[in-house]
User: Fold this.
Amino acid sequence: MLHDLAPDVVTIGFGSRTDGIWQRLRQRGWGFVGKGEWRNEPVIGVSFTGDRRANCTADDLAHELLEIVREMEIAETRLW
Assistant:
C-alpha cells in the first residue's frame, strides 16, 4: 500500500508491472479498480465501499494479485 487516500481507498503499485496487473484485474471482473499516478509512478486505486460495484474484500484482492503476479512470473521465466 502506497498511500491511503481515504478510509476506504487503497493505492498500490508494482513499478513497471502496474499497468499489466491493472489490465489483468479488469479482465477478471475487477471493474472498480482505477489506474493513476502517484509521485510520478503508476498506481492502482481500489475503493471497497465507495463504489457500488465493489462486492469484494481486501482478502479477495490480495488473492487475485498473488495469482496475477505468479502468472506473470511464470510467463517471464518460461523458455519458449
Summary: The chain is about 40% helix and 25% strand. The chain has one domain: 3-77.
